[in-house]
Amino acid sequence: MTADMLMAPRTDHLGRPSFDRLRQLALSAVGHPGGRPWQVSAIEGGARILANGPTMARMSAAGRKTVLLTAGAAMATMRLGIAMSGRRPIVSLLPDQRRPEVLVMLRHGVPGDPTDLERAMAATVRPAARYLPPVADLPAPQGLHLRARAAVEKEGQWLRTVAPDARERLARYDARIANLPKTALLLALGSTHDVPAEQLRAGAALQNLVLTVRLFGGALSLMAWPADLEGRLQHARDVGALAPRTHVLVAISGCHPVDRGAFPTPYS
Questions:
Q1: Is the pTM of this model over 0.85?
Q2: Which residue in 7, 81, 95, 156 has a CA-CA distance of 20 to 30 Å to 208?
Q3: How far apart are CA 61 and CA 225, in angstroms?
Q4: How far apart are CA 4 and CA 208, in angstroms?
């Protein structure tokens, strides 16, 4: 499935994106290898993301955080789809305290043209398995780090470079980090407050980051999810290698021309 297919103008009689389109966009977002224990259902004027309540109840804190991160990423692509239909998206996080399984509600708002950035980001959307080439032994394109930070901070989250001594400490516990090319940047994405609504926003920030790196010709690899940070990397985290409330680790680099051709960007 191509970006054109994902962003094709499938709308209802009011010009709003169809539920099927929103669902496909949700499934195109960054996901955990273990799957997505949530579903998308239709509501009047939009869609919602629902967690599987019994499954969530049995999960560890890291598992629940991962659900919220991936749901937040799905929210970001659905929000983009609504914007591209010529409507401004209305988003509610955890809207009903009596129903904690309702994670996100998105509705079609007033008519409004998408911004230039929304148009550019929408052009990079691909099925999740084809988002990005692997990190390479090439420096990141000039200015990419600043653009990546801006994409994350737009959601009220933070993105910080892992310092060389902390990276070395993490590498003792993680072979993937140890084998990263020296030219690749290792970055930590996190929140000021580690609460469910912020974890959803962090997921949206992660999706923005993926699309931004792709848009400007970089490569990105997800290096650690919450379970990794609570597992094999916990000791390194506890001795100060990572800032508190780090949710995920990512690596970014430049992209080989052959890979850039296989994963075209609007500016390639």
A1: yes
A2: 95
A3: 12
A4: 19
Sheet of 38-43: strands edge to edge?
38-43, 46-51, 102-111, 87-93
Spatial CA neighbour of 249 closest among 156, 167, 182: 167
Please list, in sequence order, all residues whose beta carbon lies within 8 angstroms of the beta carbon of residue 216, skipping any fewer than 6 positions away. 141, 143, 144, 147, 265, 267
Question: Average pLDDT in the 64-80 region?
Answer: 96
Amino acid type, 141: P
Helix axes 144-153, 196-215, angle to 10 degrees: 150
Q: How far is CA 163 from the centre of its chain?
A: 23
- Count of H-run helices and E-run strands, the chain: 12, 8
Tell me how far apart the 2 most distant CA atoms of the chain are, in Å.
Answer: 57
* Sign of the C-alpha dihedral computed for residues 87, 1, 130 and 202 taken in this order: positive
Q: What's the pLDDT tens digit per position in 127-169? A: 765 556 679 999 999 999 999 999 999 999 999 999 999 999 9
Instruction: Go through 88-126 and write b for each residue having 16 or more CB atoms within 10 A of its CB, e for each that does not.
Output: bbebebbeeeeeebbbbbbbbbeeeebeeeeebbbbbbb
Phi, psi of 239 (to 5 degrees): -95, 15
Is residue 116 pLDDT above 80, yes or no?
yes
Mean pLDDT score, 194-202: 96
Question: For the residues 102-128, what does the mean pLDDT come to?
Answer: 92
Q: Cα dist. 58→39, 55, 196, 236, 263 in Å?
A: 17, 5, 17, 27, 38
pLDDT for 14 equals: 43
Residue recorded with tokens 């409004």: 112
